[in-house]
UniProtKB/TrEMBL annotation:
Record carries keyword Isomerase: no
Domain Acetyl-coenzyme A synthetase N-terminal as annotated: residue spans: 12-65
Molecular functions per Gene Ontology: acetoacetate-CoA ligase activity
Organismal lineage: Bacteria, Pseudomonadati, Pseudomonadota, Betaproteobacteria, Rhodocyclales
Organism of provenance: Aromatoleum diolicum
Family: Belongs to the ATP-dependent AMP-binding enzyme family.
Keyword Transferase tagged: no
Residues annotated as domain AMP-dependent synthetase/ligase: 81-465
Protein name: Acetoacetate--CoA ligase
The enzyme's E.C. designation: 6.2.1.16
């Protein structure tokens, strides 16, 4: 690329610096490098640098599915599968289901034709309530092939959560499974679907995927659907449809899918991403930051453990754009044993395993030793995201997986369907750090005055546009929610809401959400370092810290801990936790109290609900603080409501006595 643009690019840091110095040239280079096709030429790669509103590849026509399915005819693709799938039911029997590239193309074309027959056209929304199964991949590709807009929720989400998302986008078709398998249990979802459909009057057709029937032999019939008068068809009729439709060319910025913010307050934000932006960002991310390639050439088989409702599902599926085999697992990663996912990785021959940071720390806690039970020599890399990965996890991997295995740690978000920060095998690995800022991403850490800082914690900002930034939020009048979400602090500059430190060597550390920052006597710190110190204690399973700042009063920091079964928070353990914080973090960040609780409240994507807990402890009503349907364990929030009430009553008694 250096020769093509007459620039000297001796190493990664030089390449990244050039990539943001000349965004149009870099992204034109990505277009050419990955052989993106368009029946019409684009005028310029980037017409306007403003945010929001940047115009990418004006005049070009693309289709995510068209680019993906080019691999059907390429080279030796017939010798490698496109998808390898396994679920809990099959895990015990050691069976694996494979779909080849030609079969994938045929099924996608059939589903596209079936959806077209149902009346689905360009711009219509197709909603899905499906687990992490091949049917979800095929349905998504069939939908996108038509230029229709895909949107998915995982089947562990409750009816109110699904309704709040889908009702906003008014889907024409709902594709849903009759049930799921997770943690050794079958969960029937037919009653939920029957209750959901009358709340979605725009849905004209239900496509029922008989997943429960496959798992248990239960017939896939539905109960009474009440006032809903749409039609029902079964998935086998769609995938076996006699017709076939090729992907349609759409403008570069045509909507591809709608994903959702976590919805911790108010209705979840429906985030719209485009075909071209997602395609280019994902190609770049997989090739340069996850070190993947076409399976027929590199042998790569990619697995990132994810719920189908997390944007990491979208990321995993997008590895198909490179011609990489994707390995899907549907079920609990640690059932029936803590090393279940590692056996899956071994059985399918995965060369890259990705998961949330909490999965690896859970393996550490459970004493999982992969190198003793599987052949870890095939694994060339591990990936992590979702929350900061502590240095201890790196050390565990070198001891228990493989010495000096490469970590592709990334940090991005649902908002951009990509990563701001990532890795490359060319750079050294520093435990606790991401290797650097991603190519083509102008990320900086800014202080409160809006000035970039190095080796100091600041707000994560993006000062130039990315192709995969949201086109808009669905039905967002005047772009108000969009502007308020990202451009409220620094107009024209994307503020993501994370604390970031960029090291002098170019590495990066995320310290947690900037709105959950600990501020002790003017010294600021994210929560991740404290969690790392506390959760390293063998007695501690999980923890949450909040710093309550009262107007006119000193701040008060509470640390809540979940302990291993049989453990109690006695004086000795309190002393040990305080020692770990004092020695591992700083005496400035010793909590004012440590409280044992049963569980930490988390979102459906597994994030600790620090800010909602903080607001509850400040006396805010629960209904104003959080949408409980967006919580994985809403009863955990009820505990904090009672805790706040008791504390307020005690404070009132003290003031009265005084």
């Amino acid at each position: 690329m250096g020769a093509r643009y007459a620039v000297s690019l001796p190493d990664y840091h030089a390449l990244r610096a050039w990539s943001v110095r000349d965004l149009p040239a870099f992204w034109s280079g990505m277009w050419e490098y990955f052989g993106v096709e368009s029946p019409t030429p684009y005028a310029v790669a980037l017409k306007d640098l403003k945010m929001p509103g940047a115009q990418w590849f004006d005049g070009a026509q693309v289709n995510y599915v068209q680019h993906l399915l080019r691999h059907v005819e390429a080279g030796d693709r017939a010798k490698v599968p496109a998808i390898i799938f396994r679920n809990e039911r099959l895990q015990g029997e050691g069976r694996s289901r494979e779909i080849g590239w030609t079969e994938l193309a045929q099924r996608v074309a059939a589903v596209a034709a079936a959806l077209h027959e149902m009346g689905v056209r360009r711009g219509d929304r197709v909603a899905a309530y499906l687990p992490n199964i091949p049917e979800a991949v095929i349905a998504f590709l069939g939908c996108a092939s038509l230029g229709a807009i895909w949107s998915q929720c995982a089947p562990d989400m409750g009816i109110a959560t699904v309704r709040d998302r889908f009702k906003q986008i008014e889907p024409k078709v709902l594709i849903a499974c009759d049930g799921t398998v997770y943690g050794g249990k079958l969960a029937d979802r037919r009653e939920l679907i029957a209750s959901l459909l009358p709340t979605l009057p725009s849905v004209e057709m239900l496509v029922l995927v008989p997943y429960l029937e496959e798992a248990s032999g239960t017939p896939a019939g539905l109960p009474d659907l009440g006032e809903w008068r749409g039609q029902i068809t079964l998935w086998p009729d769609c995938v076996g449809f006699a017709g076939a439709r090729a992907p349609e060319w759409v403008p570069f910025d045509h909507p591809l899918w709608i994903v959702y913010s976590s919805g911790t307050t108010g209705l979840p934000k429906p985030i719209v991403h485009g075909h071209g932006g997602v395609m280019l960002e994902m190609l770049k991310l997989h090739a340069f930051h996850l070190d993947l390639g076409p399976s027929a050439e590199t042998g790569d088989r990619f697995h990132w453990y994810s719920s189908s409702g997390w944007v990491m599902w979208n990321l995993q599926i997008s590895a198909l754009l490179l011609g990489t085999t994707i390995c899907l697992y549907d079920g609990h990663p640690s059932f029936p044993a803590a090393d279940t996912l590692w056996h899956f990785v071994d059985d399918v021959g995965a060369t890259f395993l990705g998961a949330g940071a909490a999965y690896y720390t859970g393996c550490m806690k459970a004493g999982v030793e992969p190198r003793k039970v599987i052949d870890t020599s095939k694994l060339k890399g591990l990936g992590s995201t979702g929350s900061p990965l502590p240095p201890e996890a790196y050390r565990w991997s070198y001891e228990q997986v493989r010495e000096n295995i490469w970590w592709g740690v990334i940090s991005g978000g649902t908002d951009i369907a990509s990563a701001f920060l990532g890795g490359t095998p060319e750079l050294p690995t520093v435990p606790g750090e991401m290797q650097g800022v991603c190519l083509g991403v102008d990320v900086q850490a800014w202080n409160e005055a809006g000035q970039p800082v190095i080796d100091a914690v600041g707000e994560l900002v993006v000062v130039q546009p990315m192709p995969s930034m949201p086109l808009r939020f669905w039905n967002d009048i005047g772009n108000r929610r969009y502007l308020d979400s990202y451009f409220d602090m620094f107009p024209g500059i994307w503020r993501h809401g994370d604390w970031l430190r960029i090291t002098p060597g170019g590495g990066a550390v995320i310290y947690g959400r900037s709105d959950a920052t600990l501020n002790r006597h003017g010294h600021r710190m994210g929560t991740s370092e404290l969690y790392s110190a506390v959760e390293a204690a063998p007695e501690v399973l999980d923890s949450l810290v909040v710093d309550i700042e009262y107007l006119g009063r000193a701040s008060f920091m509470s640390l809540f801990v979940v302990l291993q079964s049989g453990q109690q928070l006695d004086d000795a353990l309190v002393g040990e936790l305080r020692r770990r914080i004092r020695d591992g973090v700083s005496p400035r960040f010793l909590p004012d109290e440590i409280v044992q609780i049963a569980e930490i409240p988390r979102t459906l994507t597994g994030k600790k609900q620090e800010l909602p807990v903080k607001k509850l402890l400040l006396g805010k009503p629960l209904a104003e603080v959080v949408n409980k349907d967006a919580c994985a364990n809403p009863e955990a929030l009820d505990w904090f409501v009672d805790f706040a009430r008791q504390r307020e009553a005690a404070a009132g008694r003290q003031e009265t006595h005084a």
